[in-house]
Design goal:
Blueprint (H helix, E strand, L loop, with lengths): L5 E10 L2 E11 L4 E5 L6 H8 L7 E5 L5 H4 L3 E4 L13 H6 L3 H4 L7 H13 L15 H14 L4 E5 L7 H16 L3 E5 L3 H7 L2 E6 L1 E7 H4 L2 H8 L7 H6 L10
Parallel strand pairs: 3-7, 3-8, 5-6, 6-7
Antiparallel strand pairs: 1-2, 1-4, 8-9
Helix pairs in contact: 5-6, 6-7
Length: 257
């Protein structure tokens, strides 16, 4: 039986002695797209960063394909929040994508023509073939997001972790992301995204993890997105009508205005 792409057991994370994640347990199913959903401050981005070792965990076990991350790092790609990137750094879109090829290039070795071609192919896959030489600071927010998606694509990873990829993007970028997610799944990959929009979660993702410092529920979107689970996750902040919440469990259902 194949190992889960990501398995987290009893994860606890604290900022300045304040607990942000409590005893989080989850297991990601391979070959599917999974959304991590919850209110602001629920620990969604923290969970991804802790899993990747970008912030320390107080306790818990994190396994990728049954191994610590350092043993399978090349199988895992990460797309950070756009706001966390220094977009004034003097590099081109092609340079950023080529950073995802470090395993093939080698540390401190020059980027060769074959690597530039691979970067350009990934940029073409996200609709940015004509922007390869453009400095990243000269790109729109949606184009910048697509550059990081192209970097993850060039890496040829099996598991893709994305932190709010749909946040504040234009319609063209949203469609490019959806196309990329489908392509990754068709190639046998697994996708995990922090997501903020309840209206689209059942339409865009196979599985859902509801998180509010603890994992409230996880599984297929049609089973997890129930009024009871959403109330447990959002509490008084959930303002949707019961009927609208139920509709959210059906892909393509009418959205609450």
């Amino acid at each position: 039986m194949s190992k889960a792409p990501l398995e987290i057991r009893s994860l606890n994370v604290a900022y300045h002695r304040k607990m942000v994640l409590w005893d989080a347990d989850l297991s990601i199913r391979p070959g599917r797209s999974t959304a991590i959903v919850g209110p602001n401050g629920a620990g969604k981005s923290t969970l991804l960063k802790a899993a990747l070792g970008l912030i320390p965990a107080a306790s818990g076990e994190i396994l990728f394909y049954g191994e610590p991350l350092k043993k399978v790092r090349s199988r895992v790609a990460y797309v950070p929040q756009r706001e966390s990137v220094d977009w004034d750094f003097p590099v081109s879109a092609r340079d950023v994508v080529a950073m995802g090829l470090y395993k093939k290039i080698g540390w401190c070795l020059p980027v060769r023509a074959c690597h530039r071609r691979m970067a350009d192919e990934a940029l073409a896959d996200v609709g940015l073939a004509d922007f390869a030489a453009r400095q990243i600071s000269q790109l729109s927010g949606g184009q910048q997001q697509r550059v990081f998606l192209a970097r993850a694509l060039a890496q040829k990873a099996e598991l893709h972790l994305m932190d709010e990829p749909f946040a504040s993007v234009d319609a063209a970028t949203e469609q490019a992301i959806l196309t990329l997610l489908k392509k990754l799944k068709d190639q046998g990959g697994t996708v995990v995204c922090v997501h903020h929009d309840l209206d689209t979660v059942a339409e865009y993702f196979d599985d859902v993890i509801l998180l509010n410092m603890r994992v409230v529920a996880q599984g297929p979107a049609s089973e997890v997105l129930t009024p009871d689970n959403l109330r447990k996750t959002y509490g008084a902040r959930l303002t949707l009508l019961d009927e609208a919440v139920v509709d959210l469990s059906r892909p393509g259902a009418p959205r609450e205005s």
